[in-house]
Predict the 3D structure of the following.
Amino acid sequence: MQQFDTVILGGGPGGLAVAYGLHAQGQRVAVVEKDLWGGTCPNRGCDPKKILMAAVEAQARSATLQSHGLNGVPQLDWPALMAKKRAYTSIIPGGTESGLKSAEIAHFHAAARFNADGSVQAGKDQLKATNVVIATGQAPRLPHIAGQEWLRTSNDFLDLDHLPDDVTFMGAGYVGVELATIANAAGRQVHLVHHSDRPLRAFDADLVQDLMSRLKAAGIDVQLMTDIVKVEPDGDEYRVTTKSGASWTTGMVFASAGRLPVIADLGLDQVNVATTTHGITVNDHLQTTNPHIFAIGDVVDRPQPKLTPVAGYEGRYVVTALTATDAVDPIHYPAIPSVVYGKSQLAQIGVTPEQAQRDSQTYRVNDLDLTHWFSYQRIEDPKARIKVVIERASGRIVGAAVLSMEAEQVINYLAFVIQQKLDSVAINQSILAYPTLASDLTYFN
């Protein structure tokens, strides 16, 4: 049995933040990863998706400026785009492991499972530690339908040699909307099927409706209030049947209806760690129901968005919690921006417009059509809108929801404004480069 101060389960951004942080503080740590070193984000998630999305965004910008200074819309070259993606992802696992080796951090490429005595079994190795941090993340969920075995996931989409002429996505959450947008930009016929009339439920309903209208205008077959109940081979393709009775043939069907925490094979019952269907239960110090076992990142059942920066933030908190000589305060999360990427980006942060409307005595909402503001008119953004939530007592911006081709930048500016608690006076006292998205901040209050 090998002895460590802390064992970390999961070699993704969250787990690595813990490993390097504790190692720098002199702890003897070990990282166990059963899949790709580096985790989902750089291998099969946000990074490769954003590489593909770069071409989509460039194409969209070109399309809006036709007859406004540009001629000809570029076409996506799928093999070339995939080659660029693979040039990035192919070096992630080896580079991550090399970093651990260089730092002399013990690491094991094996499935991990708790033993009854609290030790961790990593393949043939048995690891004992004072504390364990679980950072195993999530994996795509396959719905239980007839023909489940024919479904593919986002992992498959992000590594396709060939993208069929017709593709279907089952679920219009982050993953479904973003991948459908990429496939549509690549010139494919796209079907996006969602079980309710409220896709992207965490986001502002009005802006989601605007986004769905834009997807339909781009040629995506958006079907709400139904679900796929059967997938079966049909020659070289697949026949899809929905609850409403609709049926069509398609080249591939991707399950994009959520993800599940990777906890099933960890043996958590052996060490009295409580879970829900949404992940591992933790307290406000990220401790599980076993005080010597912590959990961070997407594997945790918590209301905060399941995003890579959140996992890193929690990892740094756990480093402090495990090395501080005095008791540490409960974890406090700043306002967290969330973005659905695409030709038009949907972003949100802080107090939502819906929350503000329920408490109108505390908040007011500025609903602004930005389409004809200079920042958006110059790029011919077809639909730009922001709902800014303002605290009445202080006059400070405390939340926002944005739909535009520039939403990812605007939401990050607002993250800084919210975190620094800047009111309109403080914003107006800044001299910002003009005309830019940042200079528009002075008009949001």
About this structure: The CA atoms of residues 202 and 348 lie 9 Å apart. The two ends are 61 Å apart (CA to CA). DSSP finds 13 helices and 23 strands in the chain. The mean pLDDT is 97.
